[in-house]
Input
Amino acid sequence: MSTNNRSNNNSLPFLLTGIPGLEALHMWISIPFCFMYIMTLLGNSMVLLAVRLDKSLHEPMYYFISMLAVIDLIFSTAVVPKMLGVFWLDSRKIGFEACFIQMFFIHTFTAVESGVLLAMSFDRYIAICNPLRYATTLTSSRTIQIGLLSLARAAGVMTPLMCLLTSLPYCKTRVIPHSYCEHMAVVELACADPSVSDLYSLVVATLLVGTDSVFITFSYGMILRSVMRLPAQEARLKALRTCGCHVSIILLFYVGGLLSMYLQMFSFGLAPHVQVLVADFYLTVPPMLNPLIYGIKMKQIQEGIFKLLGKLAGLSISQADKNQSDVERGRHSQKIIYPILE
Output
């Protein structure tokens, strides 16, 4: 009987509160999140189109940037639409399965992004420290394999975690004091001991993110060492500029993630709405800023986007010219067929 009750409870939906204590301001709070989501869609889509259409960008470094853009699009779309539904429509219900699917996407693509950032640091290490081996070491097919390996690694370690979490009985309140299905907020609703899933998630986070960050630090340490040995100052500055955007994205990802995680684990006396807002901004700000960082710091991406915009503008102008020509031809034929009208 107890088992049946537990299974019945696990089939019931959860309720998202949005920003606890700030429900009256949800409409105003939704404005920056909506703006950031639109900018995320536009910016990352523009980067993908620029890399896809500009053949000069068909290189491993830009393929990795495209992977980050895809991750950001999936990451944001998994969270923000439902968040805006809570803010705008008070659509607080989220199905049991949908909640854990959302959580799976968040955790999986966080791990995928960590793997891609590691691959990007390796790419810059080879390009700067062993430039003669770059073309043979990082081919296009190998770049795609690295991306797929990062995805398989993330999905492989997150699937057991989701199995552990969904097997827990959730017979307490169904209210999640958050804007999305945040891992720790959901686990607190379980009425069984979640120590196994907690231990697993801690080990996975330490091994994945910890190992990746150590190798990234090592790679950029070796890069910095090689750059400082370059005889020409201009060459040193060029190499540092090339790595600058990658380092900015890495810091944004890891520092933001650690801040969000620690605030969820330890309140530090902060109000609940501050903790939730920090977590929400972590999921929405980096996906919006990443394409802006590429555009500001990488001349090649800038040129690719400008080419794309130029093509789109050219198509619009040529279409307008075509429409004008069609009108003129229509008028000319009208003069020929119906000269008496003139």
In short: The first strand starts at residue 14 and ends at 16. The radius of gyration is 25 Å. The mean pLDDT is 81. The beta strands are 14-16, 93-94, 175-176.
